[in-house]
Amino acid sequence: MRLLSNLLVLGCVVSVYSARQRRSIDLIAAHSLISQEKLPQDVTPNGYHLTLQPFPIYGYFVGTVRINVTVQQDTREIVLHTHSSMVVLDTAVSQIQPPADEIKNTEAAESEQPSPSSLAVESTSKVAKKPWLAIILQNEAKSGAILEVFLRFTGSLFNDTSEGLFRNSYIDPLTKETKWFVSTYMRPNLARSVFPCFDEPAYKVPMVITVGRHKSMVAVSNMPLEKTEAMEDWKDWVWDTFERTPPMATFSIGIVVSEFSYLSYNISNENDLELKVWARPDYIVALTNVSEKVMRSLEILEELWETPYPLPKLNIYALPNYQATKAADSWGVLLFKESELSGKGSWHITQELVYQWLGALATPFWWNDAHINNALVRFITAYTTLKMDENETFNNWPMTTLYSIYYEFSKRYPHGKSTAIKQDSTSAKTELVFRMLNYTLGESTFKRGLQRFIDDRKYKTFFSDDIWLCLTEQAKFDEKLPKTITVNEIAASWITKDRLPVVTVRRNYDENSATISQRVYLRERPHDVPDQEKFVWWIPVVLVRQDKLNFHNSTPLVWMKREREIKLEHLPGKEHFVIVNPEEIGPFPVNYDATNWNMLAQYLCSENRTKIPVHTRAKLLHDAWNLAYAGDLSFATALNMTLFLKNEREYLAWDPVFTLIDHIGKHIDSSSVHKKFQTYVRLLLTPLYEELGNEPQEGESDGRAHLRSSSKIFLCQAGYKPCIEEAQTAFRKWMQSTNPDEGNPVANQYICPVFKWGTQEEWDFGLQRIVNFPTSRKQNERTYLLKTLAGCPNDASKIERLLNITVLEQNGNFTDNDVYLIFSMLSGGANGYTSLFNFLRKNWDVIKVRFEEKPHLWNSLVTSATTVFKTQEGLDMVSELYVERQSEFGTADFVIEKALRNIKEETKWSNDNLPVIEQWLDGYLRVNDAVPAN
Known about the structure:
It is a lipid-anchor; GPI-anchor. This protein is an alpha+beta fold.
């Protein structure tokens, strides 16, 4: 089909691409998963007419594309993106309009447009080792000429993954027929697998899309249907042509061809938006609440952007067997898993709606800026969801995000070698920078800054600098930032570092002043990160004082302008506490002097506790134990901060304590202090769990349900007898079943308590279920059973028996992968790794021979058996083994040497902190008249 005559040449698109070459804050360019190599810029697109005809039953598609392009400089070569599996059948190039200087030199220019002329193609071929298609012309095309590139092609429909142009099927419950559907998922750079194109986000141009389909199916695309025409050569098939799109990137293309049913709604906004929610006919009834979620989200987002939803229609699909890891946010066509769309929460829907503005309407110029885009999408999704006042687990935001990045960025080596972890944690940190700016600039200023941005960049591309610039201009207009400060400076100090700061407040109570300092926050020992003294941030100092409690004013008293230390005057006297960074306004923990911490602990234990908002109560607890873990605060002070939990029932305030129990418990479980700590845990959690009850209540919040679940898990780990008895009762039903190998009727939550605290008979039963596990059942069930069998027991004899069977006997019931998994699980607790160490030492010669040709198992064994000790006793044990077998470690020699270095650091931690923890626990247990269980 020929290129539509109304496909206009958009010279502005070309000029935007060539002019916008400045560099923005580069998050993680060096680690990007997408090639940084751009297409040659000799030729750039002005618009497409794409025609596709998929054949879902047969698994392939055919298509044509006509691309209107402008020649930017004289060239014989036109280079496009294309997928390696695509077959290009025909190529043709014609000149629609010669360069402007040639038109002026022709008499015809005064009376009529020049006629298109064919340009001879010398060759069309794929470029080696690149996803490029090169079209070589016989003669040079001149700069300024406008060409039409025609390509006919065919390709395979993806079937095993939901990407590019893919197909899938479902069974019609009435007719029992297999029903096929076809759809697109183009992000981030998968359009090239569907048709040859300029598959870079900077090339935003209008598109006309035509889809061939059978009459029994319905085709949907980004824009409303313009016309339907019968196919000349295909009976019962038609062409659907859709209206021309606004300028958009190739990844925004959306197409679905299906026999789905839909629910239709009209939403009153500037564009009189038509909303359709699609699903297979027997599932559509589960989606009746989707429209309400969409309308509520759109109302908030349109008010936020002061720009209406940019297209005249929105189609939302619940796809059966959808295999992508996230929803597809094509412009105007959103694809979800059925469970995501029918669930009670709205977060998934809201996030994809945010992408309709950020990503589709305004598009990152290149992939580096996509990370800033993703971070802003995450923040606006959270902002919108909270505005909707949804009672869902998402309300843990931002604590869940904060806790994870505090942990990641405080490591000696953040992210390890994982690019994916680096990308996610960096994006999460940037999301929290946006949240910090929303607080410190004020929500009104922040919103108007975003409105400036979207108004300036809609239908265009942007750099991250554009966002910071618009926020700066608005902040200065509203007098929320000094003229010498820019948002770019503030943001860059956070985004370009793989670290976070800790702020320390040391008060001078005689002068009513305080010294506030910043340094790198390091949780893991040793604190020997290179160049840490050079790390400084722009930090907003928001302060709340006890004599004038006000958690609504988030305007900073002062900014630390990359200063190592500042002084604050006019603070309250020694009878009043202060809180810096309330509500986690900025992503950084705060330490205080002991007096201020003690005043906070006493206040939280009083009836006035709730005057401090729950997020701030959680922050104080989380900061205290993390700082203690890092060696910056006494554990006595940190444990004092848990005393208020006796009267606390908000899940958000409890959330940090479960991580504390887990981390501290694992760190001290090889010492005599551990039994006292478990008694403390039971005393802390038992009243809470008994009040919550064992069974969920109708209509209870997700937070309450999660609090019950978490408290039960940790009580079980600490030996809470009702929990153990409940687990054993459930487990007994499995033991008494006629054929226990047919399936496991016991909930996973009960298995570990039984293997940890139960009888030898119960543990032996679990072992037999692994040995006899039928191949017909899901192997992940066997894996979970093996993990708990190895990782949960307290009894060293059970662990030794498992090791004898799997390592020494070699009876064929356990694979090398099983053995590797067992070693890994035993490193999770002192009973496990101590038993493994003793087993290795006792059976060294036999094991060494067994693993002689299996270095991965040998290294894994030595690692799990030696690297996790944390006390002087453990250091002595490993040192003795090293001396005994110094020349025999082989490939694991580096492991044992590293283990000794790490254990020395852990031993220092234990020597410094265990006496303090034990002394505090002794006092706590004495006050509560409790004795540690044997």
